[in-house]
Design goal:
Helix content is 20%, strand content 22%. It has helices at residues 32-39, 134-140, 153-166, 186-197; strands at 7-12, 45-51, 72-75, 78-81, 107-111, 145-151, 170-179, 200-202.
Length: 205
C-alpha cells in the first residue's frame, strides 16, 4: 500500500562491504535486501545512502599505527571506533549489493567522504554539526515521516533515526529490514536510546 506523500524511506548503506564476505560484514546483512526491495516502492520519497570513504580514512585502524580494528580512540569530534578499511570510494566494497533494486532511488547520498571525520548518520557527520544535506532535501519534498532500514541497526541506522527525531521528523525503524553489528552490547544500547527518544521500533522477531 502506497504511503502518504509526506513519508520517506531512507535505505542505509546496503553495500558489499557490510554484507557477508565484505570487509566489515554485518552477520546476515544480505537478508535485508529482499524486504527492502519489497517495500521501497510503497514510499513516495526514496533515499539511498552509501558510506564513501577515502583511502586511509581517519576512522580506519590502518591509519593509526599500533591500533587494531574495533579499538576506541578520541578524535577531535569525540570517541571513534576504529574500523577495518571498508567502503573505499569507487571499489567493489562500496557498491550497493547487486540484488538491491537501486533504480527506485530518487536521491543517493554519499557520506563519510571527508578523510578526517566519520559519518554514521545520514543527516550529520560525527561532529554532530556538519550536515549532509539530507534534512534540506526531505524538507523540500514535504517529508514529515521517515522510515529507516538497512545496515547496521546499531550504528548508521540508529544514529540516523535519532537525528531524524532531533530534527523534528517522525521516525520509524523496521527491524525486519535491518541487521546489527552488536559490538559489546551496542544493539541493546541503540534500541534503548531510540525508544527513549521516541523512535518507533517495529518488526521485532
Amino acid at each position: 500500500m502506497t504511503k502518504h506523500a509526506n513519508e520517506a524511506i531512507v535505505v542505509i548503506d546496503v553495500q558489499n562491504d557490510f554484507c557477508p564476505g565484505g570487509a566489515l560484514a554485518v552477520e546476515r546483512g544480505d537478508e535485508v535486501v529482499p524486504e527492502i526491495n519489497r517495500i521501497v516502492r510503497n514510499y513516495p520519497v526514496r533515499v539511498f545512502t552509501q558510506d564513501w570513504h577515502t583511502k586511509g580514512h581517519g576512522s580506519f585502524a590502518s591509519a593509526h599505527p599500533g591500533r587494531a580494528p574495533f579499538d576506541l580512540i578520541d578524535m577531535p569530534y569525540g570517541p571513534q571506533v576504529l574500523w577495518p578499511d571498508h567502503c573505499v570510494q569507487s571499489t567493489d566494497g562500496a557498491d550497493f549489493h547487486e540484488d538491491l533494486i537501486t533504480e527506485t532511488a530518487q536521491m543517493i547520498l554519499r557520506k563519510g567522504f571527508r578523510s578526517e571525520i566519520d559519518s554514521y548518520s545520514a543527516f550529520f557527520e560525527n561532529d554532530r554539526t556538519t550536515a549532509t544535506g539530507l534534512e534540506g532535501y526531505l524538507r523540500g519534498r514535504g517529508v514529515e515521516k521517515v522510515t529507516l532500514v538497512g545496515l547496521a541497526t546499531d550504528y548508521c541506522v540508529a544514529w540516523s533515526a535519532l537525528d531524524a527525531v532531533r530534527l523534528g521528523f517522525s521516525a520509524k525503524i523496521r527491524l525486519d529490514a535491518c541487521r546489527a553489528i552488536d559490538l559489546d552490547g551496542s544493539l541493546a544500547k541503540a534500541l534503548s536510546a531510540m525508544e527513549a527518544a521516541g523512535v518507533q521500533v517495529v518488526g521485532r522477531s
